[in-house]
Every structure is written in structure tokens, then in C-alpha cells.
Amino acid sequence: MPQRATVLLHPDFRVGEIDRRVFGSFVEHLGRAVYTGIYEPGHETADEHGFRRDVADLTHELGVTMARYPGGNFVSNYNWEDGVGPVEDRKPFIDLAWRTIEPNTIGTDEFLQWAEREGIEPMMAVNLGTRGVAAAAALVEYCNGEAGSRWADLRIANGREKPYGVRLWCLGNEMDGPWQIGHKTADEYGKLAAEAGKAMKLVDPTIELVACGSSSMQMDTFGEWERTVLEHTWDVVDHISMHAYYEELDGDRASFLGSGTAMDRFIRRVVASADAVAARRRSDKQITISFDEWNVWYLQSRFVGEKNLPLQKDAPRIIEDVYSGLDAVVVGDLLVTLLNHADRVPVACLAQLVNVIAPIMTEPDGPAWRQPTFHPFATTARLARGTALDLRVTAPTVSTAQHGDVPVVTAAATLDGTEGAVFLVNRSAEPVEVELSHPGVELTLGRGVQVTADHEPAVEGPEHAAKVAAEHVAEVDAPVTSADAGRTVLTLAPESWLALPATLTR
Known about the structure:
Mean pLDDT: 97
Subunit structure: Homohexamer; trimer of dimers.
Pfam family, one: Alpha-L-AF_C
EC number: 3.2.1.55
Number of strands: 27
InterPro entries: Alpha-L-AF_C (IPR010720), ASD1_cat (IPR055235), GH (IPR017853), Glyco_hydro_b (IPR013780)
Keywords: Carbohydrate metabolism, Glycosidase, Hydrolase
Helix content: 25-40%
Low-confidence stretches: none
CATH superfamily of the largest domain: Glycosidases
Distance between the termini: 33 Å
CATH architecture of the largest domain: Alpha-Beta Barrel
Strand content: 25-35%
Structural class: alpha/beta
CATH topology of the largest domain: TIM Barrel
Shape: globular
CATH class of the largest domain: Alpha Beta
Largest sheet: 8 strands, antiparallel
Number of helices: 11
């Protein structure tokens, strides 16, 4: 007999509204994310501004609503003023984060105008590594200020009359990390972020600010970092960031498939840290989470490390992970986790958009294509609308080396009026029977998308990505084995992610 799980769902039980910014991504000046990624003026699809139309079209298909820029580690050694004005007057510089000669061809104006043309909300980061309060406030003024002030007038002189109206701003990046240029203690960073944030909001009171949280749950300073930083920044910030990457280590497939449980614990612990600060301050303010870097990244097993990178130029190939069907199932599971925390995670960024640990790959002067991880993200962005429902999942568990016991089945559901979607993950190597219990509600499941894991190593190039898509990504009818009033039973394929459109009526 297959293992059996039960998922109780009802439209009256809700987590919270889904903020469309949770389907964000990330464009950093790293490797080929910008140059030969979103931008390649000599490409046959390039528009009049030099941006690749094929990449933009795939970005729309992916469902990306927001893009974070310009970093990432890159931002902590970046002087934004060097990247505005006439391109021919801009000087290249050494990016210390990724040991690359940055040509400064693409800067603030080029990125923001690309985002505007494509209907993508920008999320900007300021340099709190090697710079500070004045530079951060000046960048807000440059982007959002009206005519009549120094930096707004510079923007106008550079050809942009209308303010960009950037609303979401990161106060630096991963400042807890010793790898970060300008790394600081929690106390040092918290004081600087508070002052920078105060100045930025004096320039534009309508902006939202993200304080740097921990770079991972494994950081020695995790928890205490959040407490200290939020004590300093409480009055000015709206969100605290989280970053997390997951990979299969030493063939430990069970732990990798259980990565969503690790993400869930991370979110709950950061929420607890933020709420503890609120309680101590007797504050009703609720800090939410900007999960502005997340993905599968083979950081330990494939990446040589920043210190081992030679000094390079001409958009070198850095961190161009290729993905498998297994990776795609895990990405789908991580999306389930984000939906289940819709009340506290309004912002999230799949890192990154193109070429660098990305769902979209390109070749210079060549094609652009979808990696296997593209499919669960695009499907979720398309189907998950309205409100995230508060499900009750009862499932057997499997023991993992990294995360302890994790449930074999995870699930999320969304509802917008009577139209919704159900997302189900089977982390087991065997089929699992899932009973969807929906008392008093009629549930109709439509034709959806299934992703199944493979057992083959990922290979570079569009041919392998197409092979995985053909063999492990499919449109499917709901695999219903029985249904009666208030109860629908499905069978989930082994190691699979399933997304089904649904109608719920009383």
C-alpha cells in the first residue's frame, strides 16, 4: 500500500494575501547576468537600447514581477555616480566582490529604464560597505527627486525628466558576512543602517526599507544579528532580509528534497526574532521579511570561491550552475514554503535571473533557453493569486541527516474569488496517496503542471534542458483516484511537484 497523507483545506482558513513581489528576481553585476545576459547590443534580438528581447520575453513568461539591483556582494564596492551620465565618460573599475573589471556600461538609468519598459518593479540596493549615509540619500534623490535639487537635476541632465519612483530599497547586502567588502558587526551595521535609512526617508518618505538580516541560518551570529540590527533600525525599516541557498551534498538526496523544511524553520525563527524585538519595545509594528536571495546553488560542491577567482574582464562565466529535474522539484517545494508564509513574506527574489544560478540561460550571439527550474516558478507565478490558504497537512515523515524528520508531503493552496490553485509535493521515492479534505466545499481540479525528479547529472546547454523538460515537465490532468462530497483523493508521483488550477464553491 502506498503511504497516505491528508490535506485539509477550506476557503475560510487563510494565511494572508499574496504580495506579487514574492515573485521577484535578481540582476547583479556578476558574471554574465548583465552583459550577454539581459544586455547584448550586438545580438539579433537586441532592442534599440541594446537589451535582449529574447531574454525579456522569457522573463515575462517566467512571471517575474520585481528585480533587485545592482547586488548582491557587488553593491558593497560600487559608486553609483560612476555608472550614470554619458557612457563614453564612465571609467571601468575593479569589482572586488567577484574580481571582475566592470565596464560601467549599464548603470542606474539603464537598468531602471529597462525595468520600466518591461513592467518590472525595481528593488534598489545602496552601498553600506565602503560608503554610507550621504551616498545612499543622494541615490534616492537621483531616482525619486523632483526638479530643483542637485541629484534630481543631474538625472534630468542625463536625459530622464520624470522621477523613477523606486519604492523598495535594500540597506546594503549581507553585512554579517566576512566575505563582504566593508563587513561590519551587528552593532556597527545597525547604527549605520538606521542613519542611512533615516536620511533616505527624509528624501522620500514613501519608500520601503529592508535591513540586512543573516546571510544564512548557519551564520554564527544568526538570531543575535537580527535582534541587534532591529533594535537600531526599528523606527525606519519595514522589512528584514533573509538569504538561503540549498544543494545536494554527497548524494544526500533525502536532505536535499527536505530543503523546504529548512526554509520554513528559517522563516519562523526570523519572524520570532523580529516579534521578540517588537514585544520588548511594546510596539505594534510588524516587521516583515524580504527573502531577497533564494535558490538552489551548488555553492560548496561547484563554486571555487571568490578568493580563487582570477581577475577577469568581458563578462566571465561565473556560477553558471546547470539544473536537473530534481533541482526543479526542490525549487517548487521552496515556492510552496514561501506561499505558506504569505502573511510575513511579501517580498522574495529568486537569485538570479539570467546565467548566474538562473532559470534563464543565454549564449553570446546565440539562443536563450529555459532551465528546468524555470517551470515551477513560472507555473506558480501564473496560478498563485489572491489569498494563501491555511492548510492542515498530516503526513508521514522521513528522517534526514541535515534536517531531522521532514514530512513526506508538503502543500499550499491559493484562492482568488472562487478560482484558485493547489500545489503538492511528494518528497518520497514512492508514490503517495493524498486525500484532499474540503468539507462543505465543492473542489474541481483542472489540468496542471507536474515536475518529476531525475537521476541524471545536469549538463550544460539547451539540448539537455529541453530533454529534461520533455521527460520530467508535463501538462497533466489531476491524478484523481476517487472523489465524493468533501473529499478528493490523488496519487502523487515519486519525487514530484504538482500544481493544479482549482475551483472552490460552497
